[in-house]
Each structure stands twice: as C-alpha cells, then as structure tokens.
Design brief:
With about 625 residues, this protein is of the alpha+beta class. The chain contains 22 helices and 19 strands. Helix 13 packs antiparallel against helix 14 and helix 17 packs parallel to helix 19. The longest helix is centred in the C-terminal third of the chain and has 22 residues.
Length: about 625
C-alpha cells in the first residue's frame, strides 16, 4: 500500500484501576490487592513494533472478525490459556443528542460485550487474509444491532483480568511530500499553495501581492470610495492593476451569527466595490466571512472571563450583553476586521496581442538584443500559460540563443517549465547544466540545479550523487543565496533521506534525518503547506510530539489554512486532555469556522471516508460542541 495512503490506527489505553472491582463473564477487574497482574500486558503493548497493528470489525455477512498484521507477535503477547480479549460493540445511538447525558458505562465497557475469546481458540482460527493480515472470525453481530452504525473495541485480558482497552481511531495522514523550495526566475518564485496549481508569486515586475488589515467600525456596513481612496492612493498603482482581491472578513462574536455574517459580507463587498471603482479591468474577488472566535478565545485567556471558553457559543452570546459586553469591548473592537490580499498585475502593453504575434515579437527582440523587451514578452507568455490559455510546451517557441548574453532568459524558460510541471525534472536539470556552463558562477542557476536534483532523487527518476548534492547545497552560501533558502533545500534533502531509509530499513538514518529537518525549520519562513508536509513526515515516522509542537505555532492564527487545522485535529483530538485547554478549543473553533461540514465528519465512524470515530463523543466538551453545531 502506498505510504501516503496508509491509514494510521491509534489505540486508546485506559487504566483498568478506574473501574469498579467487579467481573464480566467471569473476567475480573484488577484491584490494588492483585499487584502488578497487568504489568506484562502493559509493557507488551508499549513496546509493540510500529509495524504491528490489530483491529476488530464486521464484514458484509455480519461476521465479527479480529485482524492482526503479525501472528507471531500475537502469539508472544497472549501467553497463557486465560489470555485473550473481549469485543465491546459501540453504537452511535449512545451519543444521540436528544439524550441529556451519556448512558453509564459498565466496568468501563460502553456497548454490547461479547464473551471472551481465549488464546487457545483464537490462534488456530487466524488465517492469512487477502490484505496480508491474519484474520479470524470470532462471532456474529447481534440481530438487534444489524444495520446500525457500529464500531468494535477490544478489551485485552491477561490471566483472566481486564488489562487494556483498545479503541480504534482511523487517522489518515496527509500525502507525504517535500516543502516548497521554489526556483529562481529573476527572484525566488515558489510553486502553488495547497489548493491551486498556479504560481503564487510572480515574475520580474509582473506581479506583487499586498496584504493589509482594514478595521471595521461597530455597526458600520458600507465603505465608500472616500473611505478607500487614501488606501488606494497609498498603493500608488500607476503601473499596476488590481488583478484579484481576497477578503477574509471577521466579526466580533456577540450578537446574532446570521446578522454578523450578513454584516461582514456587506462590509467586504463594499470594500471590493470601492476598489473596483478606481480601475476599468474587472477585479476577480473572493470573500469569506466568519465570526472571530479564535482571537476572542485567545484574548480572554488571562481575563476574568476565561471561564467562557467552557461554554457553548450560544451560552457565550447570551452573556455578551449589557455590562459584560461593554467591559469586553476593548477586545471585541479588535476582532472586527478584514484581512485583504491584493494581487497586482503590471499593466501589460501586450495584453491584446495574440500569442502568435508575441512569439514573433520575442524572436525579433532577441535578434535585436533588446533583453528588456524580451523579458516583458516572456512574462506575458508565462502568464498565459499560468492561466491555461496556452500550453507549457509553447515555451519551446521562445527560442533563446545558447550564449552568455541570453543565459538568464534561458534559465527562466527552463525553471518556469519545471515549476508548472515537476515531471520535466530530468529535462530541466540537463538544460540547466548547459546554462551553467555559460554562467558558471551564477547562484540562481546553481540553486535551481539543487532544487531539480532533489525532486529527481525524491521520485527516484535517476541516480543522484547525494553526497555531492549536499555539498552543493551548503556551497550556495558562497554564491549569495540566503541561508533561509539553503535551509529549505536542506530540509528537503533530509526528508528525501527519510523516504529512502524506509526501503533500506535504516532506522538510524531515518531518525537522524528527521531530527536534522526538525532542527532547522525555525530558520525558514514556512507556508502552511510547508508546515503540513514537514509535520506529516514527523508524525508518520514516530515523532508525533514534535509534529504537534511545530503546528502549535500556527493553529491559533485566524489565517491558518483549513488543511493544516484539520491535520492538526487528526493528530490531537483523540487526547481528551487537549479539549480542556482554552487554546485547543480556539483551534477547534477555527477549524469549524473554516469548514463546518468537514469538522462534523470527524465524528463519523472510523469506517467512513473522513471519520475518526464517533466515540470521540465520550468527551463531554466535544459532545456539547457536536450537538450544538453538527446535529442539525
């Protein structure tokens, strides 16, 4: 199974001493009088190899089965005749929001319990299954539970004592990939963010992006040209048009949610309309509106109102009235704002010309050695490729002489092709090697050679001298390449080492490479996509603690990406201690506000596409949040 598609199963281990000293089917709950009867079982689980996993589930014929990846490990784990397990069948009906409280658990068991399955009867039944795992049929789904939303927990038994309760969580890792190292055109140019395949940053004097914040006055909904003109004038857009406007509008949390979102949409639209009034080219606009729960939770953490974080949204809104509202206004006023991002496009004298005319003009500019004109035409062609108006192969029509004078133009052609389509890696590398001969001391070309080699090595397209590559990356400092960009390449070098250490089963190399990648990430300006890729590597290969620590820097920012937030929740939401933290609750609300539907699906069965487990709703805070926001 491809590594990036592998499902990670985590096991919740519950201390048996929390339960009553009674028995079920003759199996006893250990007490302090029983000594360390469960210690060998606990130790065996803790030292279980990562490659070993087990689960219980049902098939299409309502047979309940047990599966394990390693039969020999199970044989070692279950030692005596009174070693085995019980299946605890959990139904989502238990979490019906119409119930005021959860039904009481019995001996820690939350569902329908099947009789024990002992080692002597289990092991002979285990047969190699088609997925490479060992499977044994151990029972039938009770007739009254057939057709219901069920999950299957395992309670391990040692010497006839309940010892370990295993609850399965289906936690899907994100697709493994490298962080974005970019390529040098005129300046460093990075590839797309998580969702798009277009270039985020532009080419020489072609694009620039401006980000700023517009505060909203309380109860003011309309922004006119008079309000926006000082901002527009400050941009000094003599040579640029606004190509796109991305507005994320936030309201403070008091008052009606529906009215808040309506007001924010009016405000954002009025800002966009006011900006549009200053230019003729139509501005493509995207608007997102939400209540600013993230900053509200962050700001009240050390105030007398910190206890509000334990309440539901509805309860908080009911308290944000009268005197309380007035006392919190110094915070609330900072929560009403719009984060505005403008993509500016340099006014293009070639905009109305056909591509064929541009190709001819480029050839003429090259023949006349008019490099500035050739660069402007090249940028216009790049933009048309970016907008899918023409194909990337059309760059072949921009013929560039093989000479030192035109080497930078050639580098831009090759590097742009690679940014658009990484599968051009080998071709790009070979062409860049030829260009390097023309400009042997050019740091930008040397950087691009390192970046392309990393992609070639990562995809195993061609044998790479990795020792030389590492030296070449370090030597970039001698050619004026900033250390932050060198560190980007080094992170990718170490992550690729991790990838290939799996094939060679070199645990020492894998751990060393992960440690080195994590050790330098703070010296790099990472995007959310980069954070996601690096954290995914750490978590997938046993360093979940550092993965979470790294993501903690971003999860409470209102501009944190949706994918980053949900990946973080996947890593952490199974730990019920997290939901007691105000900071964590703010992160959950941040994710909810980004995508309500996706958030609610986390609480579906582990057998569904996006579900972790509906047993997350054992956590009373999560159940309250789910029932308030998802049960509609």
């Amino acid at each position: 199974m491809p590594l990036q598609k592998k499902l990670l199963f985590l096991y919740l281990l519950i201390s048996p001493f929390l339960f009553f000293a009674q028995n079920q089917f003759g199996v006893k709950i250990p007490t302090s009088n029983d000594g360390n009867v469960c210690q060998p079982c606990n130790q065996a689980i803790k030292s279980k190899p990562r490659s070993v996993s087990f689960r219980a589930d049902s098939d299409a014929n309502n047979n309940i089965f047990f599966e394990v990846t390693d039969k020999n490990w199970l044989n070692t784990f279950l030692k005596g005749s009174k070693d085995g397990f019980m299946i605890d069948i959990a139904s989502k009906e238990r979490y019906d929001c119409a119930l005021e409280t959860l039904p009481a658990s019995k001996y820690g068991l939350i569902g329908r319990t099947l009789p024990p399955v002992w080692k002597g009867k289990l092991l002979p039944k285990l047969k190699k299954h088609k997925n490479g795992r060992y499977r044994a049929i151990i029972g039938k789904v009770p007739s009254d539970l057939i057709g219901k939303d069920l999950e299957f927990n395992i309670y391990f038994i040692r010497n006839n004592f309940f010892c370990f309760y295993s609850r399965v969580y289906n936690i899907r890792g994100a697709k493994l990939g490298l962080i974005d190292s970019g390529m040098f055109l005129d300046t460093i140019t990075f590839t797309s963010d998580i969702k798009t395949k277009t270039l985020k940053e532009g080419f020489k004097m072609k694009y620039k992006t401006l980000d700023f914040v517009i505060p909203f006055e309380k109860n003011k909904a309309i922004y006119s040209e008079v309000d926006i003109k000082p901002l527009y004038d400050s941009l000094r857009l003599t040579d640029f048009d606004i190509k796109t406007i991305d507005i994320k509008a936030y309201s403070s949390v008091e008052g009606s949610t529906e009215r808040n979102l309506e007001l924010q949409n009016q405000r954002a639209s009025s800002i966009a309309n006011a900006l549009q009034s200053f230019q003729k080219p139509t501005i493509k606009t995207s608007i997102e509106t939400t209540e600013n729960w993230v900053e509200f939770f962050n700001d009240i953490e050390d105030t007398p109102y910190a206890s509000f974080t334990a309440l539901s949204k509805k309860q908080i809104k009911s308290k944000l009235m009268g005197t309380t509202n007035q006392k919190l206004e110094p915070y609330l006023k900072n929560h009403r704002k719009a984060l505005v991002s403008l993509e500016l496009e340099k006014k293009d004298p070639y905009k109305e010309m056909t591509s064929e005319v541009l190709y001819n003009l480029f050839v003429n500019a090259v023949q006349e050695k008019s490099l500035n004109k050739a660069e402007l035409i090249q940028s216009t062609i790049f933009e048309r490729i970016k907008g899918n108006e023409i194909g990337v192969k059309d760059l072949e029509k921009l013929k560039v002489p093989s000479s030192k004078e035109f080497a930078k133009l050639a580098n831009k052609n090759v590097s742009f092709s690679f940014l658009i389509n990484k599968s051009f890696g080998i071709i790009a590398f070979d062409k860049l090697k030829e260009i390097e001969k023309l400009l042997p001391k050019n740091g930008h070309i040397k950087y691009n050679l390192c970046a392309t080699q990393l992609i070639i090595w990562y995809n195993n397209w061609k044998k790479i001298d990795i020792k030389k590559l590492k030296n070449d990356i370090h030597n970039l400092k001698n050619y004026g390449i900033p250390s932050t960009l060198i560190n980007r390449l080094l992170i990718n070098y170490h992550l690729t080492n991790v990838r290939f250490s799996i094939q060679s089963n070199d645990t020492k190399l894998r751990e060393s490479s992960l440690k080195q990648a994590y050790g330098i990430y703070n010296n790099v300006n990472l995007s959310d996509s980069d954070y996601l890729n690096l954290a995914n590597y750490l978590a997938a290969f046993g360093d979940k603690e550092n993965a979470v620590s790294m993501l903690n820097q971003r999860i409470n920012k209102i501009d944190a990406s949706e994918d980053l937030l949900f990946y973080y929740l996947n890593l952490t939401v199974t730990n019920s201690a997290n939901t007691e933290s105000n900071i964590y609750r703010a992160a959950m609300l941040n994710a909810f506000d980004k995508n309500k539907k996706r958030f609610c699906k986390l609480f579906d069965s582990y057998k569904t596409e996006h579900g972790i487990t509906f047993q997350l709703l054992e956590d009373l805070y999560l159940r309250k949040m789910y029932c308030e926001n998802c049960n509609k």
